[in-house]
Predict the structure.
Amino acid sequence: MDQAESLRKFYSGFAGKYDLFMPWEQRILRERRFFKYMLDTYNVNSVLDCFCGTGFHLAMLSEMGYDVEGIDISPDMVNKARENLKARGLEPMIALGDVKAINTKKKYDCVLSMGNSLPHEFGDDNILKALKSMHDALNPGGICIVHIENFDRLYEDRELFIPSRHRRDDTGSDIFIFAIEYYEGRVVFNILSVIERGGLPKFAVDTVEYYPIKAGRLRELINETGFGEIRCYEDFRMSPPGRDRTYDIIMVAKKDDNK
């Protein structure tokens, strides 16, 4: 099974759970101020979310007044995104496709790769193809925002189990736990979920692999792609790398004004 087919299989089983695992209101509190600052600083009007998932960033940025569109390789995630956006009275354009070959004549002021999505691409060559495709989709002076796991710290700590999410209310409860396997050239996330409704728990394990690209190498590939100015942060408070030793890396790269 190739990597694209493996991803489609994973998200076909996980699309319905993703928003339980990543609750929107908490993410808005965490990320909204960061995006407001960045997009306004760089005079962004139009945004392409290159791994749009269930539509969180499409919804948040649309409700903030930006012109947004999305693309994702998973039909199940695209369908879930359309369902979520329709429920909020929003209708951004969402395409099914591979970010390494963005098929659009339209150019954008900003492209996004959020939620550790870029490391779904295995190998430096595929990462570079995705970055070049994103670069080509930008207007001159536009920005690319990439958010990934801090694999440098993850491999340093080598935590085997990470409690990721626990929620309980009158409707039931949700528990998600990561069990992580570390290898040379790949890291495997086994996601144990226990979702209880009406007193009936459902157990599942969903497995997904990532290419554990280190922050320094990602920066080199972003630079090789042709971006100029590159800023790096370790959280959405825009803290410099290494200050709080978080498991997040966020890079903001600006396309040259004359390209």
